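Regression test case RT-17, inverse folding.

Input:
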């Protein structure tokens, strides 16, 4: 690994020296029987609203800031969690001043780390899909580079206040930016406060601060140095998915089981609490008129916690636990339910808040009684921590030897450490908590070694602030070298790009777990992956108004750490046969740009091979926690996109956006079930999920909108949106021969138990109204928007089948659903000097 990184650095250094010496200036269910780089001012917050191309250079046609489809889909269709082309967030690259900010453990960018900093983060470069970017190689879902350089910030003194009923109630933001001053310094400062006792969903409070500071010194015409620091400490109460039974009993699709009353006040048991600040140092060097070199050094660290309830030798405190629901009385078809008992349970759910919500006072009472008897706590509140520290370096070289040729290359290096542990946050009136595993205690009766979470400190009674349960680190080192060439001709543009990357990761246990005293403690074996990616594309200018654009790429990527270990909280045992994922993707677009029409029609197809997925759950047939590792996951994402803007008059525009997708699994993966307490790999078995649909997003979506902009600076927008072809995330284990072994081959229940649930589609209607006023030196802007005006509260946006499944009682464990929010509003007033 070290040699490869040194080789990459050497190659890049050589290229840099050569550039300096250049003498140039400047549903089908499966079954066992069927085997450009311009800076665009675009807000990064979903709550802000914030000429024909006759030249020879046609680059930037798919720039996200000017693309009708992307601009509409990224906000208007987000109410149903629409994902463009069905891609996950790890399929797109996000940079901050050239530094990659995708999480090395799961590949996903965390936009919340700079939430509330809309004004400071407006400047960005974005490209769609496989289009060429001049700041990074990107990935199949495109790339975005947020530019925070103080010299490029708009000179402003701006204050805004917002009110909403969605996540938070109030928001205040202030931004001051000097622009580049006569002394060649530039400064930008921004801060915000977002808060609310409760959002649209009951029990979901919001408490967040944000800060941003950037300074830049232009040393001379060739060199400038800049520093950026930002962060967003946030605490918010989370919503949980619910069963349809609970929703129907309570008459609302927004029931949230995560909260309950404590001393008359609402308390949420699942709170997200994070603060992961980032510092970036930039050096920009204009070597000559045709060569530029940018170097960035970044450091981030911080806390990322999610609170939970934990219990030992006590009833499950979750109010929607399956045994607490009326349907449990009729879970077994051959056992008749007592109608009086069912009615009483239903009545309690409707009329007793301590039944349908967490009974905090009861938990305190049970712990207090235990303390009097000399026992440790039965219930505690804990934080599951996923902290991190990361140092990153990037170097970007832009070289334009001729007017029609642009060469871009870069180097990216990352050194990441993840800190994973649990900590006691509240003993709930108890005297302490015994740090042992209750399932190991049950499975290994009399073996006092097996039940210890930490043999280095056995039978530890933990208090508030103590680590317990598990404590391990993950390390990820990576390096990537990439290059890209762009060529322009009178009617044709071509580009080709490639990269080579090296990834190394391993686990280090800080506790010696009794279930694997050797494999749990210390450094594990280091895993190394060498990957590559290539892409190319062409833009053909049919005329001054019509273009054809095509891109194609083949990419490989190392498995993410989160998918590599079977039980990372206990041991370093890895998923067997772990390999890199392969992705082949292509798209072709027709683009029309005139003074009155802006249209893009795209067809695309992306094929994934050798994906990996890990699911942890409680297996009823084994009466213990298990791990399902799935390898060989293949899928296809294909479809068409249409985005059109028609300028009917000088003040009225019509927007039409549509997406038809087909996102399906195309293989039968191999699944292995491993029991948590013995780590013995189960027998590999086939999961029959071929032709099942990818969940988590509408595969079909459309929006028809109208925009009116009055010459006197007021505007009105309205959009009618439609979502369809949404599917529930399915339980893979139910699609195995082993799970259905008790049924005859022609049993009609096979279809009932294995068919993937399709969710109902639906419409939403949104509108916004705004007015801008210039008064002396002040610019005042007022926006008011309403989402889901018709208050459609029956649109399921996401959900999942319960991983627990009993063939003899198929209705025992219900699926859970999230519904799209009903009618919400957003009001924003801003004043800028």
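Golden output:
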């Amino acid at each position: 690994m070290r040699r490869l990184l040194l080789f990459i650095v050497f190659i890049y250094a050589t290229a840099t020296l050569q550039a300096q010496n250049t003498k140039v200036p400047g549903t089908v269910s499966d079954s066992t029987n069927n085997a450009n780089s311009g800076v665009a001012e675009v807000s990064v917050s979903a709550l802000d609203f914030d000429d024909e191309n006759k030249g020879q250079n046609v680059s930037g046609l798919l720039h996200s800031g000017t693309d009708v489809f992307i601009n509409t889909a990224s906000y208007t269709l987000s109410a149903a969690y629409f994902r463009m082309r069905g891609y996950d967030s790890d399929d797109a690259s996000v940079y901050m001043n050239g530094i990659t900010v995708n999480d090395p453990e799961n590949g996903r960018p965390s936009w919340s780390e700079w939430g509330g900093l809309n004004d400071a983060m407006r400047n960005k470069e974005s490209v769609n899909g496989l289009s060429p970017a001049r700041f990074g190689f990107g990935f199949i879902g495109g790339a975005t580079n947020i530019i925070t350089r103080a010299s490029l910030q708009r000179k402003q003194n701006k204050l805004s206040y917002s009110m909403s009923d969605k996540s938070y109630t109030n928001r205040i933001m202030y931004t001051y930016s000097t622009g580049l001053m006569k002394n060649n310094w530039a400064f930008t400062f921004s801060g915000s406060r977002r808060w609310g006792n409760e959002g649209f969903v009951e029990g979901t409070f919001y408490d967040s601060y944000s800060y941003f500071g950037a300074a830049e010194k232009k040393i001379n015409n060739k060199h400038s140095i800049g520093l950026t620091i930002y962060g967003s400490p946030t605490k918010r109460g989370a919503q949980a998915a619910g069963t349809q039974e609970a929703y129907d009993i309570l008459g609302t699709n927004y029931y949230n089981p995560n909260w309950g009353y404590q001393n008359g006040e609402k308390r949420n048991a699942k709170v997200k609490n994070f603060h992961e600040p980032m510092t970036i140092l930039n050096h920009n060097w204009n070597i000559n008129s045709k060569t530029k070199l940018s170097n960035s050094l970044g450091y981030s660290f911080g806390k990322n916690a999610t609170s939970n309830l934990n219990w030992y030798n006590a009833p499950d405190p979750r109010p929607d636990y399956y045994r607490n629901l009326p349907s449990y009385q009729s879970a077994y078809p051959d056992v008749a339910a007592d109608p009086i008992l069912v009615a009483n349970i239903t009545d309690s759910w409707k009329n007793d808040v301590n039944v349908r919500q967490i009974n905090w006072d009861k938990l305190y009472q049970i712990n207090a009684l235990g303390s009097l008897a000399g026992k440790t706590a039965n219930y505690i509140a804990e934080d599951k921590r996923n902290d991190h520290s990361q140092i990153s370096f990037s170097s970007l070289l832009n070289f334009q030897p001729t007017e029609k040729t642009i060469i871009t290359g870069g180097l990216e290096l990352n050194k990441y450490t993840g800190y994973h542990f649990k900590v006691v946050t509240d003993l709930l009136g108890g005297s302490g908590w015994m740090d042992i595993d209750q399932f190991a205690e049950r499975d290994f009766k009399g073996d006092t070694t097996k039940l210890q979470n930490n043999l280095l400190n056995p039978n530890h009674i933990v208090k508030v602030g103590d680590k317990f349960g598990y404590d391990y680190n993950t390390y990820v080192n990576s390096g990537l070298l990439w290059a890209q060439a762009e060529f322009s001709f009178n009617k044709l543009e071509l580009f080709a790009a490639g990269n080579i990357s090296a990834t190394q990761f391993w686990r280090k246990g800080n506790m010696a777990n009794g279930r694997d005293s050797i494999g749990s403690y210390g450094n594990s074996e280091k895993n190394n992956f060498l990957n590559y990616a290539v892409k190319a594309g062409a833009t053909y200018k049919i005329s001054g108004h019509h273009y054809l654009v095509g891109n194609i790429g083949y990419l490989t990527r190392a498995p993410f750490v989160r998918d590599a270990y079977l039980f990372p909280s206990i041991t370093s045992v890895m998923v067997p046969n772990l390999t890199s994922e392969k992705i082949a993707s292509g798209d072709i677009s027709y683009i029309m740009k005139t003074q009155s029409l802006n249209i893009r029609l795209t067809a695309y197809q992306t094929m994934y091979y050798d994906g990996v997925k890990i699911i942890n759950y409680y297996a009823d047939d084994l009466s213990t926690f298990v791990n399902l590792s799935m390898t060989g996951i293949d899928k296809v994402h294909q479809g068409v996109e249409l985005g059109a803007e028609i300028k009917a008059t000088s003040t009225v525009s019509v927007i039409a956006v549509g997406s038809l997708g087909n996102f399906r699994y195309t293989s039968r993966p191999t699944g292995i079930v491993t029991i948590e307490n013995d780590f013995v790999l189960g027998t590999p078995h086939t999961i029959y999920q071929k032709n099942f649909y990818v969940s988590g997003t509408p595969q079909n979506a459309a929006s028809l909108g109208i925009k009116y902009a009055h010459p006197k600076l007021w505007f009105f927008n309205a959009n009618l949106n439609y979502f369809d072809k949404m599917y529930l995330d399915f339980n893979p284990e139910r699609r195995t021969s082993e799970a259905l072994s008790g049924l005859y081959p022609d049993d009609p229940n096979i279809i009932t138990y294995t068919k993937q649930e399709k969710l109902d589609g639906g419409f939403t209607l949104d509108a916004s109204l705004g007015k801008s006023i210039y008064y002396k030196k002040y610019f005042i802007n007022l926006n008011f928007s309403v989402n889901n005006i018709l208050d459609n509260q029956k649109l399921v946006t996401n959900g999942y089948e319960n991983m627990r499944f009993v063939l003899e009682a198929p209705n025992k464990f219900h699926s859970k659903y999230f519904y799209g929010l009903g009618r919400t509003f957003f009001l924003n007033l801003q004043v800028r000097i």
